[in-house]
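User: Fold this; tokens only.

Assistant: Input:
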Amino acid sequence: MTGVVTERPGASPAAALEPRLAEHRRELTGYCYRMLGSSFDAEDAVQETMVRAWRSLDRLQGSGALRSWLYRIATNVCLDALDGRKRRALPVDLSDESSAPVPASLAGVLADGAWVEPALDRNVLPVGGDPADLAVQKESVRLAFVAALQLLPPRQRAVLILRDVLRWKADEVAALLETSVAAANSALQRARATLAAAQAQEKAPDRDVAAPDAELLARYLDAFLRYDIEALVALLHEDAVMDMPPYAMWLRSAADIGTWFAGPGAECRGSHVVPLELNGNPAFAQWRPNGPDGAHRPWAVHALTMADGRITRMTAFLDTRLFDLFGLPHDPAVADR
């Protein structure tokens, strides 16, 4: 990992560093997102990383490795943010399965910051590069994987992301965390064991996210626009899961999801949708008819997980702040241009 900062004659250190910092923003956002499980927190962490970098320019002299230096700062920012904080999880994991909510109930609300939030692919994944490396990167931002990462103690989390996702060497990780190579390797082994146990029961998603998933998304959006419940349910696995943070409600069967669509969910009839790519998977934004004028307004961002040609998980994030974070307009007509 290299990143030598060179200065133009007469240029200030800050002016020389500015474009180099910007080059690393996307990958730092992806790293902080995996660490924190929140796009909003990741943006804040990267901004704090940049501020700390500006304030400590004197520590980066001559042939300093800019990338590793920024990751050291970002790691410390994330560790500080995680200190004493409860872990984020998927909404379905925040409830007792034996007391799953009645499908028509939106009575319970999750505590703020309890759930893993979505991330827009273009904000956290690299552009271009080796297809095999990109596949690993996509896998590492899936909602279920990010939720599993939150099971790890923060330092183990950092070690696993740096080693298994970003492909750092053991001595580089040890230097960043100011520990021994043996300790870093031990943390990695413990982290891998914890993740393996957490993912043992999870249904593997489709690895090929090209044509098959795109076709399934197109069929799903067509059925959603027509609000054809029978067609929607036909695209789901029998044991598909649907959740809707910030509500504690979650459903675990295609039949119950269909009942929900036909009941309280019927207010989504006539919505406007735009495809997205979230967390390495197909997704879409939804503008729902709302108010006396019937105008479409931001409503939800839907993340989908697919396996065996069917949808296995649907998470509707009812947080309209995501529209601004993801650069989505409040007027859906603008999104179609």
